[in-house]
Amino acid sequence: DIQMTQSPSSLFASVGDRVTITCRASQGINNYLAWYQQKPGKVPKLLIFAASTLQSGVPSRFSGSGSGTDFALTISSLQPEDVATYYCQKYNSAPLTFGGGTKVEIK
Amino acid sequence: EVQVLESGGGLVQPGGSLRLSCAASGFTFRMYAMSWVRQAPGKGLEWVSGISGSGGTSNYADTVKGRFTISRDNSKNTLFLQMNSLRDEDTALYYCAKSENPYIGSNLRDWGQGTLVTVSS
User: Are B73 and B119 in contact (CB under 8 A)?
Assistant: First the structure.
């Protein structure tokens, strides 16, 4: 099975900083990659699908990039409401494996 | 409005069984694959199982294969997860999630609030 590795596992950044989270697949998955945001005590929310397509209603400061095995989620200007854990997920075929998550906190 | 509502969680002893349900509304249920995703306390997300819109195809994570069975009743807009031979490590919040199409290989846009399963003696 394909493994999904996220880095870093956690980060602290200041409001207004540019934040980048990476996700690496152990084999190529084309662009079948989604990103989810999970705020503390809340249900996961789809942010990006097809590696770079923003889900409707998601702020434009979020963006996704990559294809094949290497992907990134970027927050162009971190806001206090972005404090959350972010997960990548591959969905080219089952199992629909998630990455281990990246916890984003404000410095 | 798409809604999925899980039920059936609870406390069960190791080796026991439990059946989770997920009632769906606001969309044509048979047109979409569905998945179960779980989250152990303080841990990350783990995809558990998925089933195609027709119910003809299902897949499982290795950690539950042979113990869990996913099924659906398209006439009742309901998804199920039969969990047997439960272990301590199955303790988690179990989410029901809707795919974007009839196939299991899809991102998950809509999620329920989850139902808590606790396996403990």
Answer: no
Of A16, A26, A30, nearest in space to A76 by CA? A16
Across the interface, of B37, B105, B114, the residue whose CB is closest to A94 is: B105
3-state DSSP call for residue A80?
A: helix
pLDDT in tens, chain B (121 residues): 999 999 999 999 999 999 999 999 999 999 999 999 999 999 999 999 999 999 999 999 999 999 999 999 999 999 999 999 999 999 999 999 999 999 999 999 999 999 999 999 9
Mutation pick from A3, A45, A96 vs chain B, by most beta carbons of B within 10 Å, is: A96
The closest CB to that of A93, out of B100, B105, B114, belongs to: B105
Secondary structure of chain B in the HEC alphabet? CCEEEEECCEEECCCCCEEEEEEEECCCHHHCCEEEEEECCCCCEEEEEEECCCCCCEEECCCCCCCEEEEEECCCCEEEEEECCCCHHHCEEEEEEEECCCCCCCCEEEECCCEEEEECC
The pLDDT assigned to B35 comes to 98
Cβ contacts (< 8 Å) between A50 and chain B: which residues?
107
Work out whether strand A45-49 and strand A53-54 pair parallel, antiparallel, or are unpaired.
Answer: antiparallel
